[in-house]
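User: Could you check the structure of this?
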Amino acid sequence: MILNTRLSLAAALSGLALSALPVPALADGMPQAHTTAKLSSSASKGAASTWATASRKPNDSGVKLQYRLDGTPQAGKPTVVVLQFDGVSDPAGASVTLSVDAGLTLSGSASFSLSPGQRSDASVTVVSRGDGLAYLNVFIKQGGRTSAISIPIQTGTAAPAMKAGGEVKSLPDGENIISQPAK
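Assistant: Sure, the predicted structure tokens are below.
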């Protein structure tokens, strides 16, 4: 029995080359690079920003969400997040539940209902406790299906910090790496 190793080696190299190509991830939320609300030049001066559309999955609730931040988030100051819902088709309507990550405070109601067949708007106020990135989480339920969307609230210019848990080691060529324990 003779195995043709050239063919399997070529197939393996082709698969390796294809796996190195970037592929965007689809999630029930808002990948940070694709979904932060883009502020126009007038938005940074206090005007409303442009609308951002939440990404969707084929098996989500079926409700479309658009949002915008009114103003630039600042630590200790309220920021209004305007939410716009469309596509409620269940005769019973849909429900929305809001939550926030550590570092944000939500003012007002954390849940409300959406009527079928009409576009609904809601404004919520969040307050950042300090500079950094935190998320306003929006959960939409309709007809037994749920969408989970995370709206990024970037306060100041502080970059998100990496969680500690690894050990920094230097390679022989001088490059630093973080060694993580296997789980």
